[in-house]
Design brief:
The complex is a heterodimer of chains A (307) and B (342). Chain A has 307 residues and is α/β, with parallel strands linked by helices. Helix content of chain A is 33%, strand content 9%. Classes of the chains: A alpha/beta (307), B alpha+beta (342).
Chain lengths: 307, 342
C-alpha cells in the first residue's frame, strides 16, 4: 500500500473510533503545492497525502492543539484539548521528544503517525527564490534537501503508528555527509565569520518566519519582540537583527532538532540553520546531548539544576 | 516610437547612477531585490519580479522620523526628512499600481505623510514591461496588465533590437530631457507592442464585490484557512500595498550629559499576534482566523472603501502566494468567496 493510502486508512480509523478529534497531516492545494492539513471528519481523510514535498514540521501546531489554555504562541482559538494525531518525519518526531521533555503536553494526548522518509525535495514550498533570476535546472528538482542528506536512520524516534518499514542496516545512510557548509564557516577566522554573518543578516527583514515555523520557539512573548523594547528595539537594523539571530540560536542550543524549516521559510535565503547546527555540535561535544532522541530535558536544565 | 539599444540603455543607466540614487534589481546572494546600484553591470534585466516590492524605496523597512534631544529642561526636535533624487528602474506594472494604492493613504489624504510624499516627488519611476506572467501572477484579474504603462513615469518594452521607450508623464519627460537616452525612431506602429508580448490571458481570478466579502465575514472558512497560518509577517512585507507600521521612541547613545532619542517607524503586519493589542492588554484579534480575515478584507474592502480607490488594493503580483511558507493562497480565497456567494 502506498504511504498515502496507509495514512488515509489510519486517519479514518482514528477519527471514526473517536480516538482523536483531529489528524494533522499534509494535503495538496489547488496549485499542486503540498501544505499542512487539519482533518476533523472521517469523510475528509482523502485530502491527506504523502509525497516528497511534505517539508513542513507539523509539530509546530501541537502546542496550540494540546495546550490551548497554557501560554501559547499563535493561538487558533480557545478550546478544550482533545487527542490529536500528527504525521511526522524522522526529524519532526524528535521535536515531539523535546516538547514532551519541556512539559508542553502529555504524551497520551498525542497519536504519532511516524513516516519512514526517503527525503524531501529541494526548492519545494520555497519562498523567495522562485522569483529570483536563476531558472532551476531539472537536476535541482530531483535533489533532496541537505538536511535529508544528513539524516541518520530515516526512522522516527517515537511513533504509535509506523508508515513504511524500518530500513535494514544496509539502507541506513551514513548521515554525517554534507556538513561542508558548516566546515567552511568553522575554517574562517572570527573576523571573517563576523563579516559573513553580518552580510547575511543585512537582508533580514525581521519577518520572524524562522521563529514562527519552529516548534521549539514557543515563548508566548518573544524576548526580541517586546512592546517595551526592553532588550531590543523595533528597528530593522543590523544590531537588532544580529541580536535576534544569535540570541535565538543560543535559545535553541541543545533543543533544535535540525529540521531546517527555519531556513526553508526565510524569504531572503539566509542560512539560518547553520547557526543552530553549529551550536548543536558544541552542545554534543560539551554535554554529549543530542536534542530529541529521547524525552529528556536539554543540558541547560539538567546541568544547571544539578541533576 | 523610440527604440534604444541594449548598449544605449546601459550607458544611460551608468550616467544616471552618477547623477541620482539609482535603484534597480540586483542579485544579492541569489535573492533578487531592488537596491541602489553604482553601474549598469550590477543590474539584472531578465527576471520575473524581485522578492520585495519597490515600495521599499518609498516606504523603507525602518525610517527615522525625527531626533529628540533633551538637555536639562530643553527639548529639541529635529525632523529628518529624506533628501536626494532617486530613480527606480525595472519596475513592473503591479508594483507601480502598488505605489498608486499607497499614494491614496500617504499623499492624497490628510494628514499627508511628509516622508513618503517627499520620496515620491523626488523619485522617477522607470518601468520595464513583463515578458511573461509567472504561474502566481494575476495582475490581469485586478485591472492591470504586464505591459501596462499607466502608473509609470517612463516605460520600457524589451524587443529584439533593444527597448522601446515610452514617455508617460511630465516627470518622465523631465528625466529624459535632463539625461537623454539615445534613441532612434521606429517606423512600426504602437499596436505591435501588444502583439510582441505573449502572456497568459486564460484564467482570470474572480474579484468578489465588497458586499460579498462582508456577507461572509462570520464564515468558519477563515478559521479553517488560518489554521496552518504561522502568523509570520512575510505576506505583508513582500506585498506592494501593505503599509502598516509601528512607531517607537528609542534611545540613541548619549554623551556629555546629552540625552538623545530617535522616533522611528518600522514595518509591522496585522498578521502578527501583537499587532492589534492595545493599551490595557486587550487584543481584539487574538485568533489567527480573525487576523487572516482582516488582511484579506483590508485588501478588498476596507482600504478601497476608505480611500474610494475604484479598484482593489491587491495588484495581483502573486508574491504572497510564492512566499507563504504554508501555501495560503489569495487567489484560492478569492475563488472560494466568489463560489460560496453563488
Amino acid at each position: 500500500m502506498s504511504y498515502t493510502l496507509e495514512i488515509q486508512t489510519k486517519a479514518r480509523e482514528l477519527l471514526t473510533s473517536k480516538q482523536v478529534e483531529c489528524v494533522i497531516g499534509y494535503e495538496v492545494g489547488l496549485r499542486g503545492r503540498t501544505r499542512p492539513a487539519f482533518v476533523y471528519d472521517a469523510q475528509d481523510v482523502e485530502r491527506l497525502v504523502w509525497n516528497q514535498a511534505c517539508t513542513h514540521n507539523l509539530t509546530t501546531y501541537l502546542n496550540d492543539k494540546l495546550n490551548p489554555q497554557g501560554p501559547v504562541k499563535n493561538k487558533t482559538k480557545e478550546h478544550t484539548p482533545g487527542r490529536v494525531a500528527v504525521v511526522v518525519k524522522p526529524c519532526d518526531s524528535r521535536a515531539i521528544n523535546v516538547l514532551l521533555a519541556e512539559n508542553h503536553f502529555p504524551r497520551e494526548l498525542l497519536h504519532v503517525i511516524g513516516v519512514v522518509c526517503d527525503g524531501i525535495l529541494e526548492k519545494v514550498g520555497q519562498s523567495g527564490n522562485l522569483r529570483s533570476v536563476r531558472q532551476l535546472p531539472i537536476s535541482d528538482l530531483s535533489q533532496v534537501q541537505s538536511r535529508c542528506q544528513r539524516c541518520e536512520g530515516h526512522m522516527p524516534v517515537t511513533y504509535d503508528t509506523l508508515i513504511g518499514e524500518c530500513p535494514s542496516h544496509q539502507e541506513l545512510s551514513l548521515g554525517k555527509a554534507n556538513q561542508a557548509d558548516l566546515i567552511h564557516i568553522q575554517a574562517m577566522t572570527p573576523a571573517e565569520r563576523a563579516e559573513y554573518w553580518f552580510s547575511q543578516f543585512d537582508r533580514c527583514i525581521r519577518c520572524y518566519a524562522c521563529r514562527q515555523v519552529c516548534p521549539m520557539c514557543n515563548c508566548p512573548t518573544c524576548l526580541y519582540e517586546r512592546d517595551d523594547s526592553l532588550w531590543v528595539g523595533i528597528r530593522i537594523g543590523l544590531n537588532e537583527k544580529r541580536t535576534f539571530h544569535l540570541g535565538r540560536a543560543f535559545h535553541l542550543a541543545g533543543r533544535c532538532i535540525g529540521c531546517d524549516e527555519c531556513e526553508r521559510v526565510c524569504p531572503m535565503n539566509i542560512p539560518v540553520s547553520l547557526l543552530n547546527r553549529m551550536l548543536a555540535k558544541e552542545v554534543e561535544a560539551l554535554f554529549g546531548h543530542r536534542a530529541g532522541l529521547a524525552p529528556i530535558p536539554p543540558p541547560f536544565v539538567t546541568v544547571l539544576s544539578g541533576s | 516610437m523610440k527604440l534604444t539599444t541594449r548598449e544605449g540603455l546601459a550607458s544611460w543607466l551608468d550616467s544616471l547612477a552618477h547623477e541620482v540614487n539609482l535603484i534597480a534589481p540586483r542579485d544579492i546572494e541569489g535573492v533578487l531585490l531592488y537596491r541602489p546600484v553604482k553601474s549598469s553591470m550590477e543590474i539584472v534585466l531578465e527576471f520575473i519580479n524581485p522578492v520585495l516590492s519597490v515600495k521599499e524605496a518609498f516606504f523603507p523597512a525602518t525610517e527615522r522620523l525625527l531626533t529628540i534631544e533633551k538637555t536639562g529642561q530643553q527639548i529639541t526636535l529635529n525632523e529628518t526628512l529624506p533628501e536626494g533624487k532617486q530613480v527606480v528602474f525595472g519596475v513592473r506594472p503591479c508594483d507601480a499600481r502598488g505605489l498608486k494604492v499607497l499614494d491614496a493613504n500617504f499623499t492624497n489624504t490628510e494628514p499627508f505623510d511628509p516622508y513618503y510624499t517627499q520620496r515620491r516627488s523626488n523619485t522617477t519611476v522607470v518601468g520595464l514591461a513583463c515578458h511573461q506572467m509567472s504561474p502566481t501572477c494575476f495582475c490581469t484579474s485586478v485591472g492591470i496588465a504586464p505591459n501596462d504603462p499607466g502608473d509609470m513615469d517612463v516605460m520600457l518594452y524589451r524587443v529584439e533590437d533593444g527597448y522601446i521607450v515610452q514617455t508617460v508623464t511630465k516627470k518622465g519627460q523631465a528625466l529624459l530631457s535632463a539625461l537623454p537616452l539615445e534613441t532612434k525612431e521606429l517606423s512600426q506602429n504602437g499596436s505591435d507592442l501588444h502583439n510582441s508580448y505573449i502572456y497568459d490571458q486564460a484564467e482570470r481570478v474572480p474579484v468578489p464585490e465588497m458586499s460579498t466579502w462582508l456577507a461572509h465575514f462570520r464564515d468558519i472558512y477563515w478559521e479553517q484557512v488560518a489554521e496552518r497560518c504561522l502568523s509570520c509577517r512575510i505576506c505583508a512585507y513582500v506585498c506592494p500595498t501593505c503599509r502598516c507600521f509601528s512607531v517607537r521612541d528609542e534611545v540613541l547613545s548619549s554623551e556629555n550629559g546629552r540625552n538623545q532619542y530617535e522616533r522611528i517607524r518600522c514595518w509591522d503586519s496585522c498578521a502578527g499576534e501583537a499587532y492589534r493589542r492595545i493599551a490595557g492588554g486587550h487584543n481584539p484579534r487574538p485568533e489567527k482566523g480573525q487576523r487572516l480575515r482582516n488582511r484579506f478584507l483590508c485588501k478588498f474592502v476596507y482600504y478601497p472603501r476608505q480611500y474610494a480607490l475604484g479598484y482593489a488594493a491587491c495588484t495581483g503580483c502573486g508574491r504572497c502566494i510564492d512566499a507563504c511558507p504554508v501555501n495560503i493562497d489569495i487567489t484560492e480565497v478569492m475563488q472560494h468567496i466568489e463560489e460560496v456567494s453563488q
